[in-house]
Amino acid sequence: MGKMGEMELVACPVLRDENSSVVEYQGIPQFHPPAYDYIQGSVRLKQDASDNYVFCHVERDKAGKIPCVPSGKAYI
After folding, report:
1. What angle do CA 7, 12, 18 make, to 5 degrees?
2. Segment 1-60, tens digit of pLDDT
3. Distances (CA, A) of 7 to 2, 4, 45
4. Do 47 and 39 touch, CB atoms closer than 8 A?
5. Total number of domains in the chain
6. Which residues, 6 or more positions from 70, have their beta carbon under 8 angstroms from its beta carbon?
7. Is the pTM of this model over 0.85?
8. DSSP assignment letter at 15
9. DSSP string, 23-74
């Protein structure tokens, strides 16, 4: 995250479905959320050993489909 006090812009990767199409909810593209670490009393964006930011994986079923929409309803 750079030196203490510096700010960086981090863009989350777009969420893609099993066909590599961008996932949208009500016309708004969805993104993988960032992962966080709690370090020395503060929450920070998680980074790997190479200082790359880490993003959360999205749950998928056996067919590779994302099983729920943001409202929590399962696909039929």
Report:
1. 170
2. 455 557 777 889 999 988 889 988 888 898 999 999 998 999 999 999 999 999 998 888
3. 7, 9, 12
4. no
5. 1
6. 25, 30
7. no
8. P
9. PEETTEE-BPPBPEEEETTEEEE-B-TTS-B-B------TTS---B-TTSPB
Cα 50 to the center of its chain, rounded Å? 18
Asked if residue 76 has pLDDT above 50, the reply is no
Q: Which domain holds residue 23?
A: 1-76
Q: From 71, 75, 56, 73, select the one nearest 18 (Cα to Cα).
A: 75
CB crowding 3-34: b at 16 or more within 10 Å, else e: eeeeeeeeeeeebeeeeeeebeeeeeebeeee
